[in-house]
Specification:
globular, alpha/beta, 237 residues, 11 helices, eight-stranded mixed beta sheet, 21% strand
Amino acid sequence: MISFIIPAHNEEALLKRTLDALRASAEAVGEASEVIVADDASTDRTARIAASCGARVISIDRRQIAAARNAGASIATGQYLIFVDADTVVGEAPLRGAIEALKAGAVGGGAMIRFDGRIPRWARLTFGFWMWLYFDLLRLSSGSFLFCTRQAFDAVGGFDEAIYAAEETYMSRALRKQGRFVIVREPVVTSGRKLRQYSARELFGRLLSIGLRGRKGLENRNLKAFDVWYGPRRGDE
């Protein structure tokens, strides 16, 4: 069985779209599935929307993406765990590719991504290079869609809760040590809202601020750079 695990904080605007797509895609590939939403301190209708769509809801109060993912995994019953961001639409093709990879012996993997909506010119110009670097050269998964076996997840101890960003990068590296790690070529569609909400200077400046500090930067929740993930949204859903 597949366990879809979705970390969510105040995701009422996009969550239903994500859940509807997961249900349709799971039915299309003919796999039994469950959907778990890890509601991390939401103040909107996130939990109610999740429950109304048939998802199991686990509530935590950590405001940390890694912790939310681990909380969802703690109640999952499937032998395959698929972590999906609350703003991501998973179609039949990438899901089928992930399941086929797992059944063929892969311990985990991810999928290419495509952004929805209007994308700024600077993002369009740099996106191809980033895709090649991150997915093809480094063989890492984005947080939008990361899958693994239950056995591999337990073997690596889940997502690293000492850090507040890039937890999917550390998870990808840990899973690769367990066995074959596959990047599915068919893309999932994730929200381009951060690219619309922040300028290139703001985004790259924040990433540089974290990167120059190394791992210690990822552990410092008080950095302003983390407002991309944890700060108030700027209105574009």
